[in-house]
C-alpha cells in the first residue's frame, strides 16, 4: 500500500504542542483531534484512507495535517516517523486510537482474523510507540485507547478483548519504564460508543440504528451510550500538564458498564 502525507500550511504549526492521533479521520480519533485542535495544538491525524483524511482535515484547524498509513502494516511507523522528522516536529501527545472490532467467539475466529486484530489493535501501537520514542520530548504523554472489554472477560469478542487487555498491560509497563524520562502513559477504556468501528462500512438505516442505540444505552448503569466526544474529553484531560503527577492510569469512560 502506498503512503503519503497530506498537505498543510507549515507556517501555522505550533511546534511545541504537537499531537498525533491514529485512526484520526473518524469516531473517537476525529473527536480527539478536534478537541486538541480547538485548543491550539498542531494535530497530525493518521488513517488508512487518504480520502477520509482529506474530509476530516476540512473539519480541523489550518495547523493540522494528515498522514495516510495502515497501522497494521509493519512499515507504517517508519513512514510516520519520517513525516514527523521532515516537519521538524516534536510530539507532545501520542494517541494510539486506531483499532478494529470483531464480535466473534474464540471458536468462530479464524487464524487470519486473530492476526488481523492483533496486528492492528496491539502491534500497531507497539511498533508506532517504539519507533516514535526518540521523537517524544520530556513531559510527553502517550494515551492508548483500549476498552472495557480489556478489563474483564467478555464472551463473544475473544480476539478483540484479548488485544485490548494486552494493550492495557503494555500501558502500565510503559508507565513504569518511561517514568524516568518524564513521559506519562495512560489508557482510556470506553464502553459502547457510537462510532464507525461497529458498522464495518455498512451503517444501518435510521430506524435500525435508533433501536440499536437504545439497546446499547440499556446496558450502561447511566442508561446512555457513549459518544466520541465523551472519550475525547477524557483523553484531553489526561494529556494536560495539570495531570503531571498521574501515570499508568487505566480510566473507564463507560457509563458504568464495567461495574455490571
What does this structure look like?
The protein is α/β, with parallel strands linked by helices. The chain has a single domain (4-195, 227-253), classed as Rossmann fold (3-Layer(aba) Sandwich). The chain contains seven helices and eight strands; from the N terminus they run ββαβαβαβαβαβααβ. The chain has helices spanning 27-37, 50-57, 76-86, 111-132, 158-177, 206-219, 228-239; strands at 4-5, 18-22, 42-47, 65-68, 91-96, 136-145, 184-190, 250-253. An eight-stranded mixed beta sheet has the order 1-4-3-2-5-6-7-8, with helices on both faces. Strand 6 (136-145), helix 5 and strand 7 form a beta-alpha-beta unit. The longest helix has 22 residues, at 111-132. The protein is globular and about 45 Å long. The termini are far apart. Mean pLDDT is 92; it is low at 1-15.
Amino acid at each position: 500500500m502506498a503512503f503519503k502525507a497530506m498537505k498543510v500550511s507549515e507556517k501555522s504549526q505550533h511546534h511545541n504542542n504537537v499531537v498525533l492521533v491514529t485512526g484520526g479521520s473518524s469516531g473517537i480519533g476525529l473527536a480527539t483531534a478536534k478537541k486538541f485542535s480547538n485548543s491550539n495544538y498542531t494535530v497530525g491525524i493518521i488513517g488508512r484512507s487518504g480520502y477520509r483524511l482529506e474530509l476530516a482535515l476540512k473539519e480541523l484547524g489550518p495547523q493540522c495535517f494528515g498522514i495516510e498509513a495502515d497501522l497494521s502494516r509493519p512499515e507504517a511507523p517508519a513512514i510516520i516517523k519520517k513525516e514527523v522528522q521532515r516537519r521538524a516536529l516534536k510530539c507532545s501527545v501520542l494517541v494510539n486510537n486506531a483499532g478494529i472490532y470483531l464480535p466473534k467467539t474464540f471458536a468462530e475466529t479464524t487464524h487470519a482474523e486473530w492476526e488481523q486484530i492483533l496486528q492492528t489493535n496491539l502491534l500497531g501501537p507497539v511498533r508506532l510507540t517504539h519507533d516514535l520514542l526518540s521523537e517524544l520530548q520530556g513531559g510527553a504523554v502517550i494515551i492508548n485507547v483500549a476498552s472495557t472489554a480489556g478489563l474483564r472477560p467478555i464472551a463473544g469478542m475473544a480476539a478483540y478483548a484479548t488485544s485490548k487487555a494486552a494493550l492495557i498491560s503494555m500501558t502500565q509497563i510503559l508507565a513504569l519504564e518511561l517514568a524516568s524520562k518524564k513521559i506519562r502513559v495512560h489508557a482510556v477504556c470506553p464502553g459502547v460508543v457510537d462510532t464507525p468501528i461497529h458498522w464495518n462500512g455498512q451503517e444501518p438505516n435510521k430506524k435500525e440504528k435508533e433501536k440499536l442505540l437504545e439497546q446499547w444505552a440499556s446496558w450502561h448503569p447511566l442508561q446512555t451510550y457513549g459518544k466520541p466526544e465523551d472519550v475525547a474529553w477524557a483523553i484531553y484531560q489526561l494529556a494536560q500538564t495539570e495531570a503531571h503527577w498521574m501515570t499508568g492510569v487505566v480510566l473507564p469512560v463507560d457509563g458504568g458498564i464495567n461495574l455490571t
